[in-house]
Write a structure and sequence with these properties.
With 417 residues, this protein is an alpha/beta fold. It is 42% helix and 15% strand. The strands form 2 sheets. Strands 3-2-1-4-5-6-7 form a 7-stranded parallel β-sheet, with helices on both faces. The chain has a 5-stranded parallel β-sheet with strand order 10-9-8-11-12, sandwiched between helices. Strand 9, helix 10 and strand 10 form a beta-alpha-beta unit. Helix 9 packs across helix 14. The longest helix has 25 residues. The radius of gyration is 22 Å and the shape is globular. The two termini are 14 Å apart.
């Protein structure tokens, strides 16, 4: 008989158009394969429809969170973020409502849920709505946002918004006031400090914690003083990207994949175009794939050798013609989906330590920190197509060895799942 599991998610996991949605989709699939009947309580992203159309068979039921009014958000900010005992991060305050807390508790009771899984720190306060001690509460942090924001502040470049993917649902006034310039940096600094406390506080209250990076997991367990966190790294469906292997390569062509509404991707691409590409000799073509705001597209297309392809229907036919990917990541934490997917498509990836974080060392992942060294590693690959193909084959084999989803699902057992 299947056990019941309620997953409170911060977005609808399909279509799988982002790294986090890919993880959520496969986590649900893996939990179903491990004998759980999985139901979702979803806080949809601002542009996601409130419908379960396209729901995969391994998910039993989907319910959507009640919209949270401006009045309640303001009360939460005052009560919990500004004057509360535990000083919630802003994103926790903006995600919380008493109505949703009651609905989650009722849904868990109706399902007879044995496990409630909470997606990311922003849904963690709903943990307190689950009162029966017999229900296991697992906090899926994905990665440590406090670390990501700390690195973002240290980078000192680009957008400092904490809104991320949710910026599209904000008014232009809110965006200018809270996510830009000096005020945005002050908000980010405040949020980072509160996240440090919130991650520890809710991890201590949970029965288990999920992170994607083994390095972050070990460090966080050291802070907690117990082995409560488990690493469940990103997996990759190698078969889904196999079509890239048969695509004919275009000489001296390489690229970058990323949503350019996201600050880290914009900052990474700025470094590439301003500091690395000018160091390359001869002709080359650098392609950029992913959703792209008009102002970013205009700036990129004004430079030589750059093609902005925008969002594409399928990655393998486009990325498959590249010789390699260039992806020094400006800031971030956890394992980067774009790196693993490029490797699964048979591409070596030139990156830095942040980009390679959580991925075992391999010659197919040249790592450098200085612009000149990154340019030299890239030029070496572009100059020797046969060596580049050999490293690409090693990249794919490395992902198949270390990052199959089935291998990742085995880690759930450490949490009693």
């Amino acid at each position: 008989m299947k056990r019941s599991l309620l997953f409170v998610t911060s977005r609808l996991p399909w279509p799988t158009t982002s790294g986090r949605k890919v993880s959520l989709w496969h986590y649900c699939r893996g939990l179903a394969e491990r004998g759980f009947e999985v139901s979702l309580y979803v806080f949809p992203e601002w542009d996601q429809p409130r419908t379960d159309a396209g729901k995969p068979d391994f998910i039993r039921e989907v319910r959507f969170a009640a919209p949270i009014g401006k009045g309640e958000k303001l009360r939460n900010l005052l009560r919990h973020s500004l004057f509360g005992k535990h000083r919630w991060p802003l994103q926790c305050a903006l995600y919380y409502s008493r109505k949703n807390a009651a609905a989650i508790a009722a849904f868990a009771e109706e399902l007879g849920a044995e496990v409630v899984l909470l997606d990311m720190i922003r849904t963690a306060p709903y943990m307190d709505a689950i009162t029966p001690k017999t229900v296991r509460k697992i906090l899926d942090l994905d990665d440590l946002l406090s670390l990501r924001y700390s690195r973002q502040l240290a980078a000192g470049t680009g957008d400092v918004s904490i809104a991320g993917r949710y910026a599209g649902g904000m008014s232009s006034l809110s965006d200018r006031l809270l996510c830009r310039g000096l005020v945005g940096r002050l908000v980010l600094r405040c949020e980072q400090k509160r996240l440090v406390g919130a991650e520890i506080y809710y991890a201590q209250r949970a029965d288990g914690v999920i992170l994607v990076s083994p390095e972050e997991t070990a460090a966080f367990n050291g802070v907690l003083g117990e082995e409560k966190a488990v690493a469940v790294p990103m997996g990759v469906d190698g078969q889904a990207f196999a079509a890239a292997l048969s695509v004919e390569k275009a000489p001296r062509t390489f690229g970058f994949v990323g949503n350019l509404h996201v600050a880290a991707n914009v900052a990474s691409l700025q470094r590439i175009t301003e500091n690395i590409l000018p160091r390359l000799g001869g002709n080359f073509t650098f392609e950029v794939v992913g959703p792209c705001p008009p102002e970013v597209r205009e700036r990129l297309e004004s430079a030589p050798h750059i093609r902005v392809l925008g969002e594409v229907e399928s990655l393998p036919p486009v990325v498959g013609k590249w010789q390699c990917m260039l992806a020094p990541i400006a800031f971030g934490s956890g394992i980067k989906t774009k790196i693993l997917e490029a490797m699964a498509m048979g591409l070596p990836v030139v990156t830095n330590a942040v980009g390679a974080e959580g991925i075992p060392a391999t010659p197919a992942l040249p790592v450098a920190e200085e612009d000149a060294d990154l340019a030299a590693a890239l030029e070496h690959l572009l100059a020797d197509e046969a060596a580049c193909r050999a490293l690409g084959a090693e990249a794919r084999a490395h992902v198949e060895r270390c990052f199959s989803w089935q291998k990742m699902f085995e880690e759930f057992a450490k949490l009693g799942l």
